[in-house]
Write a structure and sequence with these properties.
The complex is a heterotrimer. By secondary structure, chain B is α+β, with helices and mostly antiparallel strands. Chain B is built from 5 helices and 5 strands, in the order αβαββαββαα. A 3-stranded antiparallel β-sheet of chain B has the order 2-3-5. The model of chain B has no long low-confidence stretch (mean pLDDT 92). The chains are: A alpha/beta, B alpha+beta, C alpha/beta.
């Protein structure tokens, strides 16, 4: 591990769980025992929440707004602004929901946070709940993270014992109840309105917006849904101030971001890096470069639902605006790398299979269009492509955009970039019935 | 001017005279049978599937398209899951042999044949019932079988066993 | 009247009502933008994505491809549905919907009225590019009424939105996800909702089709229809029966935005079997001998004259039917006037008294009776006097709309009913005891704020009633509750009405025309007529349409009417017609024209199907022929409705001019006559 490349000014989120060097967090996160309550407090835990409880709720909101924190779930919406949409004068029950339904392929950052440092998340939720005076919180956790749910439940019990949950926490007069809900296991549950429906016991179909959940969410009450990583920044922002958080990032970005890499890299894993770290640095310095000695062909920057980026774009700083300028999206900043030997047609078929399986089936372009795309790409990849197939893919790739939620546009990202950037591979396969690369599917 | 008239007359007579030495095209019907092209639009028949069942599925399209309303039928659901016509009447006294019914037929059941010898002395004899219209063969399009592509379960062919269909989907499973 | 906004559609400026979505506005303007999942009653879902149009929020602002049904119309919006991008999007969308749609249109019962066919043609999708196999589904057995063919589904969610969300049923659902969304029941079995037949109408394709129609299928374009009224209850739903050749094939709801707007109940939809029944009366009979109807009428007239001469006045009587039209009952009364006889209507004396009291209250304008759409608007409902789900199903559906809006529902019924599950409180008591409970509520209303009510049910109902803004009470005036219940409901309403807040009251009746015949002048109690028949005082009895009268108790086999000459004017060979001395067959309800009055006193005209019927005349015509044969033909022309019924003279003539596709005419006796002729 090359120590000289470290650009990180400070480790924030991984403070309690770093084991193998300053910023590397290995992919085998589950192997590391979770940080208990005593260790957490010893390392300065619950200081942010203690500070927040002494402030007025609106002051807490202001600190978060000033910190420049943007949602880490993928969309990058400013967290402070999202919070400000919650009507503070609402009389009834308001809800805070932590979205831990991490089903984005190639993304495993929330798992590290939950498995390694559950109290950090609980403290974060206390701060967020206090800022918006929400007395009930849910952690909506992916059903494959059963162990994570157990860890969280254990940590919540500890927090309850130490007076951090339940009625009148830390004698502040503020109540906060926290429940862990294990998802039924659909990718679409990660969409915030589908998550709300799922939590209510309904079909996990997304809802139409407006009304937005901030106003009409869980059971019709104002609800905030935040990603695990977004929330986990809060204790540190509260403890050390908005300006400190702002100074963490590069090129005017605020804070750190957990970045990951998987696929054809030597050292797949997670690193906490300043927002704005160039992609090349993540790939070559942290992930150790290509695994098979070939050069990279393409990278999907943020989970699966983002357009592919080619090597000439590798100098793009990984922050929300720069990646968007480069024609993709930062998403979860968990890179999936492909090298020269990977057949992009087969890879696209694989990607489309995932989207075909995970569609909720509510609206037509997604439900009917993606299976057709998958069948077509699969046929091409198997050497059974026909003349009109690319025309179908062109049509459908542009068609699946106007859907009810962002799921099908998420499928459109990798598809559209694959059939434009790697069109020659599709054409070659259709004409010669075999892939131009020696390697198989990624 | 006179010359012109005479010239025209002579031209005409020449053409007439030319026919004196050709073979006559008149045929001695009914002793001699004419050769009728296979796509002649004559007597209407109802054909059968390759497996011998009725091809007609009683969709009423022939009745709807018929410009003289000479077709009348009634649909029935058969125990084997097929639909067919329990009654199928064509009034040939009205029929103008336009062939629209054949064009409208989605199952190639109704077909027009090269037979025009339907004259009769009583008008009522021109009302053909189903049994008068049915033939045992497939007529044109010998391979086509509607029920193979319809996607409907019938006896001997369950859902998904037709052409270009997948086996019935199981909504309780999310396996590929 | 709500505010108006200006909206530009395809370059033309239109004025439209504010607060609606763009698709609604386009459809109201008569501009056909293809759509599936949007339904006028069910609203927009955004599932089909077909109603795409280029929508710009205002001049100079960029237009985006948006779903018209998901976009609320704002002032100054510019909508372009002919934009090539939108047209192309819709064409591709239909292509997607057709990927798995089976090739079974020739055997599909929806063919000819299929929305998918229409939209496919409208969006100009013609060429199938997909070469992969089609998905198939197994069907379910959904009981005797609905046929299920899941292959045809385009996943618009209309069925579950109707069945679960609108009609509050719970045994039809949506299963699975992605390309495997399945609409059906947990397992095979009959649908339990009273409104399951509407699935046939709301489904834009042929997933749910009418099993009865399927058995005698013909294409909808071949059906002959007539605007009619459902004969099965006092709601008076507008229906469109369809017939072909010699039989009634199916019944569909007909839109009347003051009665049933989109839907109808299964009883009405699948209850047309009597038209095609084997026991239809086809030939006239007199003293056991078959003969032509004309001869039978002549001989009957002769016999009636004899009886009047022999036995004098009062020896002749007639019993009319709440299941027959106003015209038929009027002709029967006129016949009795001609013969100076007596008449009554089927049912019992106590029930008739209750009907008459309720009808009089409505006709005199003493209660404010809501139409069905108005019932849906209430924010408090008390149901008393019967099982509304069985006795007036469409009113039950209207009440379900109030439940959806969160309005409290209180029920007092003889036994557990389906609406109990949605009620805030339900009390089960025998009908004669219900008047007392209603009075309790009225008493509690006086002390609404008092604590420690002796009757918690009455207290809860009264406090909810006191705070409601648009309360309503639905009271069954069907019989056993008697006149006491009718009065109790009326006095409760009288107590609940405040100047700023009306309290509406519905009396529902047992039969289609119960209201109409309750306005009859000079009728006797059916009990006395029946007694006099049994004890031989009445020598000749004319029975009108006993088959449709719902009175199966009488004539009683144990008390033969030997000494009485009975004349049955009926369409169906029921008990009365079988035993009658003279049988005069008439056409059945769906084959005749006439006027009926529903629960709110709404006179509605219906037309008959042009079937080649076994008999040509309606019961009214048969009776008028009989009057002519008695030599009293001129009385027919002299008589107006208001001579026989408690109807103002002004309305009497209007009834004759009612059109079948109008909203009908609310019969009110006061000067404050509301004219609603469409």
């Amino acid at each position: 591990m090359a120590q000289g490349v470290r650009t990180m000014s400070e480790i924030v989120l991984f403070k309690n769980i770093q084991k193998n060097g300053p910023e590397l967090f290995p992919a085998g996160a589950a192997a590391i025992p979770a940080c208990g309550y005593d260790d957490y407090v010893k390392n300065g835990g619950y200081q942010g929440a203690r500070k927040a409880l002494k402030m007025a709720p609106l002051e807490v909101q202001q600190v978060v707004k000033d910190s420049g924190l943007r949602g880490r779930g993928g969309a990058g919406f400013p967290t402070g602004m999202k919070w400000s949409f919650v009507p503070m004068d609402f009389k009834g029950q308001k809800y805070l929901i932590c979205n831990c339904d991490e089903m984005e392929p190639g993304t495993f950052k929330d798992r590290a946070l939950v498995y390694g440092d559950p109290h950090q998340l609980i403290e974060s939720m206390i701060i967020a709940a206090y800022a918006m005076q929400m007395t009930q919180g849910f952690i909506f956790i992916r059903c494959e993270y059963r162990k994570g749910a157990r860890i969280l439940e254990q940590a919540a019990a500890e927090a309850l014992n130490h007076g951090w949950l339940g009625k009148n926490i830390q004698s502040s007069g503020f109540d906060f109840h926290l429940d862990v809900h294990l998802s039924a296991g659909r990718y679409i549950c990660g969409e915030e309105t589908a998550l709300l429906n799922s939590l209510e016991g309904k079909r996990a179909n997304p809802r139409s917006k407006p009304p937005f959940p901030q106003v009409y969410g869980f059971l019709g009450s104002p609800t905030i849904v935040n990603n695990v990583e977004t929330l986990c920044n809060l204790p540190h922002i509260l403890a050390r101030g908005a300006q400190w958080h702002k100074s963490l990032g590069l090129n005017g970005n605020a804070g750190t971001k957990i970045m990951g890499a998987s696929g054809r890299v030597k050292n797949p894993g997670l690193w906490e890096l300043p927002l704005g770290t160039p992609m090349r640095e993540v790939l070559n310095e942290h992930a150790g470069g290509p695994s098979r000695g070939k050069s990279f062909k393409t990278v999907i920057p943020g989970g699966l639902s983002t357009p592919m980026m080619t090597p000439d774009q590798f100098d793009t700083p990984l922050d929300f605006d720069s990646v968007a300028k480069a024609g993709s999206r930062l998403g979860t900043a968990c890179l999936i790398a492909f090298d020269e030997d990977d057949c992009m047609v087969a890879a696209t078929a694989n990607i489309m299979k995932f989207y075909m399986r995970e569609s909720c089936g509510f609206c037509t372009p997604c439900r009917e269009g993606i299976p057709w795309i998958y069948e077509t790409v699969k046929a091409i990849a198997e050497g059974k492509g026909e003349e009109g197939d690319l025309a179908v893919l062109d049509d459908m790739a542009r068609h699946i955009f106007h859907t009810f939620c962002a799921f099908a546009p998420g499928a459109q990202g990798p598809l559209l970039s694959a059939i434009t950037t790697f069109r020659h591979e599709f054409e070659f396969l259709i004409q010669k019935s075999q892939c131009h690369t020696a390697g198989g599917a990624s | 001017m006179i010359c012109g008239v005479v010239r025209d007359m002579l031209t005409g007579m020449k053409i007439t005279a030319g026919y004196l030495f050709r073979r006559p095209i008149t045929i001695q019907y009914p002793e001699q049978k004419p050769i009728i092209p296979p796509r002649w639009r004559g007597r209407i028949v109802l054909t059968s599937d390759p497996d011998g069942e009725d091809r007609c599925v009683a969709c009423y399209l022939c009745q709807a398209v018929c410009p003289v309303q000479c077709i009348d039928l009634q649909a029935e659901n058969r125990p084997d899951g097929r639909r067919g016509a329990s009654r199928f009447d064509i009034n040939f006294a009205r029929c103008i042999f336009c062939g629209f019914c054949e064009e409208a037929c989605p199952t190639y059941s109704i077909q027009l044949t090269p037979d025009f010898e339907m004259s009769t002395t009583a008008r009522t004899n021109l009302l053909y019932h189903k049994e008068d219209l049915q033939i045992s063969g497939t007529g044109k399009h010998p391979e086509y079988s509607y029920w193979k592509v319809a996607g409907v379960a019938i006896k001997g062919q369950d859902k998904g066993e037709g052409i270009n269909q997948t086996a019935p989907a199981d909504y309780r499973s999310n396996l590929p | 009247m709500s505010a108006k906004i200006k909206i530009t559609v395809n370059g033309v400026m239109h004025e439209a009502e504010a607060g609606r979505n763009i698709l609604q506005i386009l459809l109201d303007l008569g501009i056909m933008l293809p759509h599936f999942c949007y339904h006028e009653a069910l609203g927009a879902a955004g599932a089909c994505r077909l109603c795409a149009a280029m929508i710009s929020p205002g001049a100079g602002k960029p237009a985006r491809l948006e779903m018209a049904c998901m976009t609320r119309a704002e002032d100054g919006m510019i909508v372009d549905i002919t934009n090539p991008q939108a047209v192309d999007f819709r064409e591709k969308l239909i292509e997607e919907l057709m990927l798995n749609h089976p090739h079974d249109c020739p055997v599909c019962d929806e063919g000819g009225e299929c929305m998918l066919q229409d939209m496919t043609v409208l969006c100009r999708h013609q060429h199938r590019r997909n070469r992969f196999p089609k998905r198939t589904w197994r069907n379910q057995d959904l009981g005797p009424h609905i046929h299920h063919e899941m292959n045809r589904c385009i996943t618009c969610y209309r069925c579950v939105r109707f069945y679960r969300d609108y009609a509050l049923g719970d045994d039809l659902g949506v299963f699975g996800s992605r390309g495997r969304v399945y609409f059906g029941r947990m397992r095979d079995g009959a649908l339990v909702s009273e409104f399951s037949g509407n699935l046939v109408d709301v489904c834009p394709t042929g997933v749910f089709t009418d099993k009865h129609f399927r058995a005698v299928y013909c294409r909808p374009w071949d059906l002959q229809t007539a605007p009619s009224i459902c004969p099965h209850c006092s709601v008076g739903c507008n229906v469109l029966p369809g017939s072909r050749h010699k039989t009634l094939r199916r019944i569909k709801p007909r839109r009347n935005h003051t009665v049933n707007r989109f839907f109808m109940c299964d009883h009405g939809r699948f209850g047309g079997g009597f038209v095609n029944a084997d026991n239809r009366l086809t030939s006239a009979r007199f003293d056991g001998a078959g003969m032509s109807l004309d001869d039978a009428i002549t001989q009957t007239a002769e016999r009636l004259k004899e009886i009047v001469q022999t036995h004098g006045r009062g020896a002749v009587a007639a019993i009319g039917s709440p299941g027959a039209s106003l015209e038929a009952n009027a002709a029967l009364i006129l016949l009795m006037k001609t013969l100076e006889g007596r008449f009554a209507f089927f049912s019992t004396g106590a029930e008739r008294a209750a009907h008459k009291r309720a009808a009089a209250l409505i006709a005199n304008g003493q209660v404010d009776t809501p139409s069905l759409p108005e019932v849906e608007q209430a924010d408090f409902t008390l149901i008393v006097g019967g099982d509304i789900t069985r006795e007036a199903p469409m009113m039950d559906l209207a009440v379900r709309q109030t439940i959806r809006a969160g309005a409290p529902l209180f029920i007092i019924s003889p036994q557990a009913g389906k609406l109990d599950a949605f009620a805030k409180a339900a009390r089960h008591a025998a009908l004669p005891e219900q008047a007392a409970i209603v009075s309790n509520i009225a008493q509690a209303l006086d002390h609404a704020l008092m604590t420690g009510q002796p009757d918690p049910f009455a207290g809860a109902a009264a406090s909810a009633l006191a705070t409601a803004k648009r309360p309503q009470i639905l009271c069954g005036a069907t019989g056993a509750g008697g006149i006491a219940l009718v009065d109790a409901a009326h006095s409760l309403v009288a107590k609940a009405v405040r100047p700023e807040r009306p309290c509406r009251l519905v009396y529902w009746f047992p039969a289609m025309n119960s209201f109409g015949i309750s306005l009859a002048r000079n009728d006797e109690s059916p009990d006395t007529i029946k007694q006099d028949v049994e004890n031989g005082r009445i020598k000749a009895l004319t029975i009108l349409e006993h088959g449709a009268s719902l009175d199966s108790e009488w004539p009683d086999d144990s008390k033969p009417m030997k000494s009485c000459f009975t004349i049955a004017v009926d369409a169906i060979a029921g008990k009365a017609a079988t035993d009658a001395d003279a049988v005069l067959p008439c056409a059945s309800h769906y084959e005749t024209f006439g006027t009926v009055m529903n629960y709110e006193g709404r006179a509605q005209r219906f037309e008959g199907l042009p079937l080649p019927r076994p008999v040509t005349w309606s019961s009214a015509e048969v009776l008028l022929k009989l009057i002519e044969a008695l030599g009293a033909g001129e009385a027919i022309n002299r008589t107006e409705y208001h001579d026989l019924f408690e109807i103002p003279a002004t309305m009497s003539s209007l009834i004759g001019t009612l059109a079948p596709d109008s909203e009908g005419l609310l019969i009110r006796s006061t000067a404050a006559v509301r004219e609603v002729v469409g």
